[in-house]
Structures are given as C-alpha cells and as structure tokens.
C-alpha cells in the first residue's frame, strides 16, 4: 500500500520537544550561558552557502539574536560557499574543539553524507538548537504559462522542464525528487550555489521552475516579477496574508510536503561547559524579539528543539531522508 509522502515526512515536526532543565552546575544563566565557558572574543558563524539565500538569512538572523540574548557576545558571519554546502561543513569539521565557532545548519547536514560526497555526518558535530521549519514554494517567472504545479507536471510528461536547484542536497532538490517519485515525471536540473543565484536565473529565463523559501522570494512575489504555483507545505500559509491564497501541492493532487530545518551547530569535541553555554544562549535567543522578527519576516514555523532533543530530531529526519535520497 502506498504511504502518503506528506504523512511520512511530516512526522519529523513532532520530534521537537522542550529541553529539560539544564544541569545545576553550569552557573548563572541570566547572561545567556553557564559560568564554565565564555567566548574570549568575537564568535564566527559559518554559513555554508552564498549570500542572499535562506541559509544566509538564517545565519545572519541567528547572529543578531545571539547578540540580543547575550550582550557580551559578538558574532561575525562568514560565508563559506561551494560544493552544495560541503566546503563550509568541511571547514567547520576542522574547527573541532573550538567552541568560538558556530555554523548555521539546515538539511544539507544530513543530505550531504547520504550523497556519499563527504566524510562526515551530523554525529561529528555538536547540535545546539533547532530554530524553525522552513517550507518552499514552486516559483515560475511572471510570464510563465503555468498556473499550478499540476500544470508543470503535465508539461513535463511531454516536454523538457528545467528546474534550478541550490545543490543536489538542498531542500529544493529534495521536493523536486519527491514530486518526480509521486508523479512519474522527470525534471532537468541546473545547480546553483545559493537562493540568490537561483532567483536571478529564474528572472533571467535560464530555468523554468525553482523551489524557494518564502523569505527568499517574497520581494519578487510582491513586485509581481514571479508567481507561486503551490506550496510544498502541510497546510496553507493562513497566518501570512500575502501567502494565504497559495494552494498546497497536496490540494493540487501532488502529495508532497517537506520542511527544511534551520538550526545551530557547535563543532565536535567541545567540552560540556561550552555545550551548555551555547544551549542556554540559544534558549535565551529564541525568546528575543529578534527571533520572533526572523520567524515572521521569513514565514517560518517556530518549532524549536535544544540539545538532546535536537539530536533526536536529527536522528528521525536522517532516516526519512535516507528513504527519499537512497530509495
């Protein structure tokens, strides 16, 4: 019996639980962290993708909310793009034991190892906090003849449809793969290094379709430069007036929904005091106005999980991605 892809993949969202109270020996957490570790200078936040995309937005917003939560911590954002995230994650792997470097993480953390292109997996790092879930929209140029995702699928049965993707491990490639598996069609892929490059290619007519996070494309949507054909989400964006009328793929007969997580990693090999400091800092960060602004500006679902609960989420999400990318 065929199992609903949205039902299978949506199970990850229920894995996020509230982290139990942290150990009592970590010191006063009112400043955003325990007393056993304090950064000696500015912290580096690595973004493993180029400027302008959802990962870049996440990394810069996370830096801002950390600084808001703990006024003693400064965070510098550093883009390390290349290899669909592999360059940035590999550089971060080399920071083992350095608790003054963080990374803005997403689904590539799991998809890259499954692809067999890298020599690490999520267990080589220290999961700190899952910040949110981020769904995508299928986007076309404003003058495209397609009005729904179903139109695109029907066209793909008889003609070449060029899909831009931000690397083979990106959420866009995952939802396009799920769409292919669900409908039996096949898209031609053209890889780009970031959502910003992907948007430019779409506007320039180099590709037919793209799958972009709302936060990446909202400006072009509101300007009428592009149009959204469907949302790869469980439900419509009813809380966001500007997106509320976009049908889900499932409403159009394509049973696909999958969210990219947004989160924060510390390097592997850090001590318990440093791990505790960053967990407490991020727990304070998600209580800030800056976090709420990030969620609202980027049309996210504020599903958080800290420390061990983030690890549990990653375990479950990794199993599901293996089914998709290896199956």
Characterise the protein shown here:
InterPro entries: BUG, Bug_dom1. Belongs to the UPF0065 (bug) family. The chain contains eleven helices and eleven strands. It is 36% helix and 18% strand. The protein has a six-stranded mixed beta sheet with strand order 2-1-3-10-4-11, with helices on both faces. A five-stranded mixed beta sheet has the order 7-6-8-5-9. It has two domains: 5-134 and 259-326, D-Maltodextrin-Binding Protein, domain 2, CATH 3.40.190; 137-252, Periplasmic binding protein-like II (D-Maltodextrin-Binding Protein, domain 2), CATH 3.40.190.10. With 327 residues, the chain is α/β, with parallel strands linked by helices.
What is the total tally of β strands? 11
Q: Assign a percent range to the helix content.
A: 25-40%
Question: CATH topology of the largest domain, what is it called?
Answer: D-Maltodextrin-Binding Protein, domain 2
| Tally of individual helices | 11
Mean of residue pLDDT values = 88
Give the amount of beta strand, in percent.
Answer: 15-25%
Q: What count of structural domains?
A: 2
Family: Belongs to the UPF0065 (bug) family.
Pfam family, one: TctC
Signal peptide: 1-23
Keywords: Signal
């Amino acid at each position: 019996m065929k199992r609903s892809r949205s039902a299978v993949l949506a199970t990850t969202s229920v894995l996020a639980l509230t982290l139990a109270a942290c150990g009592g020996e970590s010191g006063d957490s009112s400043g955003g962290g325990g007393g056993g570790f304090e950064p000696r200078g500015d912290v580096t936040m690595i973004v493993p993708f180029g400027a302008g995309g959802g990962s870049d937005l996440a990394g810069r917003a996370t830096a801002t909310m950390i600084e808001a939560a703990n006024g003693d911590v400064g965070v510098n954002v550093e883009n390390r793009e290349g290899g669909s995230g592999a360059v940035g994650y590999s550089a971060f792997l080399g920071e083992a034991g350095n608790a003054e470097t963080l990374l803005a993480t997403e689904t590539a953390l799991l998809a890259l190892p499954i692809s067999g292109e890298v020599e690490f997996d999520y267990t080589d790092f220290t999961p700190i906090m899952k910040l949110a879930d981020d769904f995508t929209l299928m986007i076309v140029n404003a003058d495209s003849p397609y009005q729904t995702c179903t139109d695109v699928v029907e066209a793909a049965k008889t003609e070449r449809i060029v899909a831009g993707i931000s690397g083979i491990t990106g959420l866009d490639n995952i939802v396009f793969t799920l769409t292919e598996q669900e409908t039996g069609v096949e898209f031609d892929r053209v890889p780009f290094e970031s959502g910003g490059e992907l948007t430019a290619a779409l506007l320039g007519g180099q590709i037919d379709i793209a799958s972009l996070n709302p936060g990446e494309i909202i400006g072009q949507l509101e300007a009428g430069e592009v149009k959204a054909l469907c949302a790869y989400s469980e439900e419509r964006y009813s809380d966001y007036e500007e997106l509320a009328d976009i049908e889900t793929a499932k409403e159009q007969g394509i049973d696909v929904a999958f969210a990219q997580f947004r989160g924060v990693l510390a390097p592997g090999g850090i001590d318990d005091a440093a791990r505790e400091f960053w967990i407490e800092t991020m727990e304070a960060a998600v209580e800030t106005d800056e976090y709420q602004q990030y969620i609202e500006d980027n049309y996210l679902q504020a599903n958080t999980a800290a420390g061990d609960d983030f690890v549990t989420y990653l375990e479950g999400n990794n199993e599901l991605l293996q089914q998709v990318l290896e199956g």
